Amino acid sequence: MVSLIAAASLSAPADYPFTEMLAISPVGEGGRSVTHTDAIEKMIVAGTFVAPKAGETVTLADGKAQTWKSARANAEGWFEGEEFSGGYAFASYDSPEPRVMLLEAAGHSMAYVNGAPRAGDVYGYGYLRLPVLISKGTNTLLFATGRGRMRAKLVAPKSAVALDLGDPTLPDFVAGERSPVYAAVVITNATESEARGLVLEARCGGDLRVSYLPTIAPLTVRKVGFLIPSPGATNTDSEDVRLTLKAHETAIDTATLKLRVRTPEQSHRRTFVSAIDGSVQYYAVQPAQRSQTTSARPGLVLSVHGASVEAQGQADAYGPKTWTHIVAPTNRRPYGFDWEDWGRLDALEVLADAERRYNTDPSKTYLTGHSMGGHGTWQLGVHFPDKFAGIAPSAGWISFWSYVGRGAPLYPNPSPVEEVIKRAVSPGDTLNLAENLRNQAIYILHGDVDDNVPISESNLMAKRLDDLEIDYTFFVKKGEGHWWDDSEEPGSSCVDWPQMFDMFANRRLANNEEIRRVRFLTVNPANSSTCHWATIESQEKMMAPSRIDLTFDPLMRRFHGITENVSRLSIDVAHLSDDKPISIELDGQKLGEVKYPAEKRFYFAHVDGRWSEGDPFSPDLKGPHRYGPFKHAFNRKMVLVYGTKGRLEENAWAFYKARFDAETFYYRGNGSVDLIRDVDFGPTVGKDRSVILYGNADTNSAWKSLLGDSPLTVGRARLYLQDPTTPGKGPSLNTSMVDRAVLFLRPRPGSDTALVGAVSGTGVVGMRLTDRLPYFMAGVQYPDVIVIGPEMLDKGTAGIDGAGFFGPDWTVKSGDFAFPQP
Prior knowledge:
By secondary structure, the protein is α+β, with helices and mostly antiparallel strands.
């Protein structure tokens, strides 16, 4: 139930803007990497950090030192300087009594409030207001600073549980449509109890919709979805929606939203419920202005935006077309995930929703984007070559290594552990996947004086396409920079380029019946497995390049070709008649004429160098439905389960870390995640939802039911990896490892699709070491298993004790691990 009275006082102290802090320049190196060095975090992890004083120094791993300095905010409340770009800022707050306040801060990547990690607002959106528990006496706030400036203040919450309209996800009303629409707002729980039994009423005109809300964890925020009744016919430009938040039939807060009303011909916003986490997301549409004389289904141009751009702004950058809709997904946020990870999934969800809603012609589906969206165009294009008839990146960068890393290779002389990490991150290596662009029309657009994304990015991709003998058009706009418009027509020329749309209008995507040859590469079948009628179901070496080059001879009803690093393969034959057998030859091995399969799909397994045809593959095996690596556990409506059966310090860490992850995914991914105690986890939690466990076998009571059969065991001061089917053989870990951080994933028992992820440690030091592992950051990937010691904070990847991938059957024996032998 909802506790309307917090354990700490909710009396209203005066707002407290921080005007003075201590600040220190960066004390390590980080970025988009699985590891980082940090001399201050090293002290936090070890439990030795104390409040600093001006003039004190911190010694870095290389022996150099940085000094804590006094800093003062400017008249607008902002702290600025080099210390606020990747460094730290420290402040304190004295309170005469315990109470809950809201931390309103911007420009920081995260914060420790009295030692508890809290999400940051690194991009300075300004809407992150987190309830924090203030103790009687002196309270400490340590901010990891972000991009050059930050500000912070403490304010009193307006009530124990309240609506916060600072970050809504809203649709537009489309005139004439009567179906209810989804929206989302933030709920703040400024109490030390869970907020249960909440109801949100939404009233528009005379209609009412009631939505039952999920539980809100203590002392945090959660963005919740709800339904709004549509007004249908209306002559206004906007409609008010009155919200009433109730707890057990008692109104506890009210607010009013204003939604735009748009005609079907105007650009507008649509919302949907995401399968990733059950959150409400939106996309924007510039609808086709259809001629009344045409009956042809319209096309769809998926346009992916650049960094800091809203999807609505992206759609409005185009003039309307007569023959195609322009659909702009969000990437989950204006910065989001750079169209990788959950950003890539968002693009696919939007594409599917828009295709259904607007009844578009699948053969007329195209892809474009600008800047970060240009990168997204390359990324989506190489991963899904059978979804788009043409792609057109504008001012696009290729990968984090070519753009941010200035072309420097990742781990040029990799250790065995670094080699595993390189494979985990390989889906982001766009150049390596460029051979998948053979069958798409390609138009590259770039200004030659672009000082944001240099034209060298497009030149590099053009050279790669030349090497692969792939056709493309490359137009260089002379004298133009990153964003430009040289036309009187509606739309911005750097994205709404006429020649690009001419190319789209003259290209169609072939269907399976028209495709004779499939050449396809993937490094992870869970990301990208299918090209037309061929699917790479699993690999022999996890996350190494897997290729197929298959040809179908229709008059001979014969499939033949070669494979590389493929352990299981399937071929869809639904486009063929079922009255005759089909001849199969793979890697020179003739399987002869095979009867047309009842499932309209052939399944082939490669074992001991030989191919065989058989039944559909067991879902217990790795496949596109469930594969890894670690970040994939944060999908399928994941639920975060924190341990309560450990010691006081262990339990506190588990809750703080789970809450921190939920807040971070909300901030970076507009997410909404269930956060529950281990003792509340049971069969009522959907069996096909992925689960993230915080703790270990000794501290989290859900561990036994979910990971009791795992070959990786983590407990206090013990860590053991061993395949139970082959004891004494294969890779293993030292059983006495202490103070280690561990991330790993396994298939969820009883489910064909869900995963279990573990955020774990062999002690409190190892647990704290997981706090800032950046697995919600694009460009960072962790393999199926990784074990990290606190030495990482001094030595980087040399502090990793081991990493690896489970094999195609999820065993250690068939896997690939870089662990030291005992």
